[in-house]
Structure formats: structure tokens, C-alpha cells
Design goal:
Elements (H helix, E strand, L loop, with lengths): L29 H20 L6 H7 L21 H10 L2 H9 L9 H13 L7 E4 L6 H4 L3 H4 L3 E5 L3 H10 L4 E3 L15 E2 L7
Parallel strand pairs: 1-2, 1-4, 2-3
Helix pairs in contact: 1-3
Amino acid sequence: MVRSSDPRSAPTLARDFRITSAHGIGAGGLKEKAHANLAAIRTLKSIEAGNRDATADERVVLVKYVGWGALPNVFEADPPREWRAIASELRGLLSPEEYGSARASTPNAHYTSPEVIAAIWQALDHFGLKGGAHILEPSVGVGHFFGLMPESMYSGARRTGVELDSITARIAAKLYPDSVIHAKGFEDTPLPKEFFDAAVGNIPFG
């Protein structure tokens, strides 16, 4: 678990990041996304080295992290020439354990667009989900479902996310410090029975 917290407490969510269209989530081509990933990792490492919370400007960098699902070639033993600099920098930024975790995530770490996220929240609203609910995201990534949660459901919500990849989970914890983020596989995560009102997400099937 990335952040120690009692999931039964009622957080204010005052520190959790709120995504707007101005943040340009998912914008840019593959090279831009790769550079955004590297910037997010560098930012995360700086925050962790200082043992502190992320600043507002740092959160804007962290939220651009999209994972490596669309970029598996950066993990090849001999990457294509145009990807070699990015592959080299990535290997230098990550520990062997982090690198292995990131490489293992490539079949499943795929970006979900704000439009799809909005549609899923709209469906839950149609089904009657209201503010103050206990929400589970079993494949939370860096937390876009949390960041795009509608205001009508946001107040008083209790949110728990699970993310297998180490770097991704740690970024989510910095973006959403008032939520509970577990850095482990869902099957290994101890969760209370009959606690959650809804599970939300775009589950990877890789």
C-alpha cells in the first residue's frame, strides 16, 4: 500500500487533483507521450527524494503520465534508432525493479480517454450513484477516473484505487493523497467485504 490510511474514514478530498480540459490529458503523439512519461518520472523521483507532497505545478506534470502500453519498443533489447535516446533515459531513471515492473505493464497499461471516463460516470449517475459513495477503482492507473469524477458524486466520496505498477501507483498517490492507493495486484489486495457502493474503471484484459 502506497499511503497508510483508514479507508473507513471520511476524507475531505480537498487535496485530490481535479482534471480539466486545460490539462490536455492524452494530447500529443507517441514521442510527446514518451517525453511526458519521462518528465513525470523525474518529477516523482524529485518529490520522493524530498519526502514531500507534490506542488500544483508538479501535479500538472504527473497527470500527463500515460504508461507504456503504446510504447513497448522502448523496452526492446535493441530499440529502433528513433527511440534509443528515450529508452536509454528511461533505463537510467528507473531501478531494476521499477524497470521490470514498467516493462511488464505494457500489455495492459493503456490510456482511457476523458470522453470514455465521462460516459462511465454518466452511466453510474443514471444507475443512481450519489455523493458520499464508497468507490473502488481496481485498475486505477494514475487516477483519471478519480480526477474526472463528477462534482455531484465528489462530495464526501471515499475512494480506493489499486495499481500493480510501482511508478504508476506512486504517481497516483501523489495526485490523490486523500484517496487510498494500493500498490499491488488486485488479487493480492485486502479489501473490506460489502464496503464499496460501486467499482469503476476500464479494466485491462491483456
